[in-house]
Structure formats: C-alpha cells, structure tokens
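Continued from yesterday's entry.
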Amino acid sequence: MREGLIPTILGSVVTATGATLSRNNMKKKNVLPMIEAGVIGFGLAHIVLGAIDLVEHRR
C-alpha cells in the first residue's frame, strides 16, 4: 500500500462527516458551528498531508 493513502482516505471520510453534520444541523443550530468547521478542517489537513506523502513517495 502506498504511503499517504491511509491519511488521504481518513481525511476524506472525516471531511464528509463534517460536511454532513454541517448540512444536517443548519436548520437545528444546536451544534456549535465551530466544532463542525474544526472537523472539516481536520479532515482537509489529513487530505493535504496524505497527498504530500503520495507525491513525495511516488517512486
């Protein structure tokens, strides 16, 4: 398995989860938007770092 693939997949799942939370709670507004943004940011950071590993270890 290529190095960086797991963080990229994990980041995609976490970002999708954060986006789903954000979409579902737009009407309710009982969950803090900062938590949703933090989850999305955490996922995006994993995607970026995993992509960097994938590009660096392409050989």
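--- second protein ---
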Amino acid sequence: MANPYDYPMISQGEITVKSIDDVEEFIATDTAIDILGFSADEKISIYKLTGAVMHHGAMKFKQKQREEQAEPDGNEGKITF
C-alpha cells in the first residue's frame, strides 16, 4: 500500500503540506534515532512497529453471527513481516 489514504490512522487530516519536506523530515527522524543511541536492529524494529500500527488501523472486522467476537473481513492487503 503506497497510497496514504489506504491508512485511516494517518489520513484524517492534510496529507501534503507545502511547507514540509517529507524526505527532509524522515532524514531528521532517522538521524534523531541514531543520536538517541538505538542500534540498527532497534531502528528497524521501530519502523516495523510503525508499519504494523498503520496496517492495524486499516483492518476491517465483521461480527460473527450470534457471538460477541469479530473476525477479519477478508484478507485484502495482507502483510507479513
């Protein structure tokens, strides 16, 4: 999923802001993670966790008949880490 509108958790407001350079902001964030002393494995884990949260927010569920549980509503966009 490359379209930010596929992720409800991050697309509730403005997706593109003219005064913000996303690449520059990503580099600043990545550098800050290094300055804070995280290892390369920890940094990758941070990015994986962020991706997992975004995917979780895009999941759709349906209620099982006569039960209080829900189940995934299809497996579109299934992702594996």
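The chain has a mean pLDDT of 82. The first strand starts at residue 61 and ends at 63. Will compare against the first tomorrow.
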